[in-house]
Design brief:
two-stranded antiparallel sheet; mainly alpha; 500 residues; 73% helix
């Protein structure tokens, strides 16, 4: 425990330097704007800004993206409550009660409760991540190539269940992602694979144009297709005194905030769109626990406090499997993983041992960023909501240009621009036929880990498969991955049997 305290103290010393404070403030500000703008989301914003992080160090890039992820959860509440427009998918539930409160003249109180609940949840989830560091440091030295192979394979099993939709579609996207990851020169034999004789392809397909195409360009194409593309919503201006909840509203909000925080953090440890799932779970829980369930749907403040706390806590929870196993359980975490890999770092249990300064500085910056967000969101709520007045026919082309500049600046390569375009249209086509893009990008990141670990494991064991499969940690991971895949299928089967 003393080691954790010392690491966190050193992290605060680093995080309080002017440069890292600037990155935390910038990430918080951009994240809030991202949450306010409907459709873009933290995933799109992070993908668009991915290339610009190459000019930073890895710690600065992580601080920036953490701020964006947290900030988007905060910002999404503003438009949900004031305009009934969920700026971020995780804020859809907030619309149910938040907008009803606005219609009753209590929109300001709902915004304050959402902001305070998000702050409490963020603090609790970061504390959970800090405590998880004890576990991470203990297991770090026990992992070798067979364990990393098990992590990669379990990651693929979990990816198939990631979206909660069609298993077959997810499986196809995982295979596609792994296929893309094999393009280039074989690192062991030097043989070219799927390069079509193109010299640039021998270096492989970069993560950057794929991520920015699938999430950035695709989002622009989907937005342009929307019938309300040229419409600008009416804006409600709030006075500062309207932001204060009553004593009764505070009393009704405190317990939902803490319940949402705990549930959100735990759900964040599970693969899938955890910020979204956590809000629904919290809302249903608060409705069942409420003494006045009939108020729900008519402006119950518990329906704002709980879900807003839950989606913020889920963000902190999502960082645990990334740091512990090096596996991203959400698409946004895949972008964070890609960022670390672009800086030559491999997330996983060894990261805390190899890069303790990065690990603890990022955690400390999350505490600081959480304070920045509550300071930003309440006084500047009117400014953030007014951003919605920017016409989308100006905003969307600006995003496309930003993506193109970012991708081209990576290698000054026309091939990267072609890949950006191809994957942008591919993402749009996949969205149209309801194929999830997230498993593709995650498999593309995990694929090289599996290939490298498999070859190293075979060399270590002399080709003995048993020596790879039956090591204690590896076997435990395989069993866990198998159960996580089979249990939902078995439960669904039992449910169908009961109905019949």
């Amino acid at each position: 425990m003393l080691e954790v305290f010392q690491g966190l103290l050193q992290g605060f010393v680093n995080a309080l330097t002017p440069l890292y404070l600037y990155y935390a403030l910038l990430g918080s500000f951009l994240g809030t704007i991202t949450g306010v703008l409907p459709g873009l989301g933290p995933l799109g914003a992070m993908a668009i800004l991915l290339s610009f992080t190459l000019k930073m160090d890895a710690t600065g890039a992580m601080i920036l993206f953490a701020g964006i992820y947290y900030g988007a959860m905060y910002g999404g509440a503003s438009t949900s409550i004031l305009l009934n427009i969920p700026g971020e998918a995780a804020s859809v539930v907030t619309c149910i009660e938040g907008y009803k409160m606005t219609q009753k003249g209590r929109g300001g109180a709902a915004l304050t409760v959402a902001a305070v609940g998000s702050f409490i949840a963020g603090t609790i989830s970061i504390l959970g991540l800090t405590i998880a560091a004890l576990f991470l440091s203990d297991i770090a030295l026990r992992f070798g190539p067979p364990e990393f192979l098990a992590i990669g394979i379990c990651g693929l099993i979990l990816l198939v269940r990631l979206t909660g939709g069609s298993i077959l579609k997810s499986f196809i996207m995982v295979l596609m992602g792994m296929a893309i990851s094999t393009v280039g020169v074989d690192f062991m034999t030097g043989a070219e694979r799927f390069t079509l004789g193109n010299l640039e392809l021998s270096q492989g397909i970069d993560f950057l144009p794929v991520a920015m195409g699938l999430f950035g360009i695709t989002e622009v194409l989907v937005t342009v297709e929307d019938k309300e593309y040229l419409q600008t919503p009416s804006i409600k201006t709030l006075k500062l005194r309207e932001l204060l909840p009553s004593i009764l509203e505070w009393k009704r909000s405190i317990l939902p905030m803490f319940r949402g925080s705990v549930m959100g953090f735990l759900i964040g440890l599970v693969p899938g769109p955890s910020p979204i799932i956590s809000t629904f779970v919290s809302y249903i829980t608060e409705k069942k626990l409420s003494k006045n369930p009939d108020e729900f749907g008519n402006g119950a403040i518990e329906g704002v406090a709980g879900p807003e706390a839950a989606n913020n806590a889920a963000v902190g929870g999502a960082y645990v499997p990334l740091f512990a196993l090096g596996i991203p359980f959400t698409p946004a975490m895949a972008i964070v993983l890609g960022t670390l890999m672009l800086h030559g770092l491999t997330p996983g249990p060894n990261l805390i041992k190899e890069k303790p300064d990065l690990f603890w500085t990022v955690i400390a910056s999350m505490y600081i960023g959480n304070v920045m967000l509550i300071v930003l969101n309440l006084p500047l709520v009117n400014l953030f909501v007014k951003i919605l007045r920017v016409p989308k026919n100006i905003l969307m082309p600006a995003i496309v240009i930003t993506c193109m500049i970012g991708v081209y600046s990576l290698n000054s390569s026309m091939l990267d621009l072609i890949m950006l375009t191809l994957f942008g249209f591919l993402g749009y086509a996949l969205r149209a036929v309801d194929f999830p893009a997230a498993p593709l990008i995650l498999a593309m990141v995990i694929g090289p880990l599996i290939e490298t670990s498999l070859r190293q494991s075979l060399n270590i064991s002399g080709g003995d498969i048993g020596g790879i499969l039956f090591r204690p940690i590896a076997l435990s991971l395989y069993i866990l991955g198998l159960f996580s895949f089979l249990i939902p299928l078995l439960m669904k089967g039992f449910k169908n049997l009961r109905k019949s």
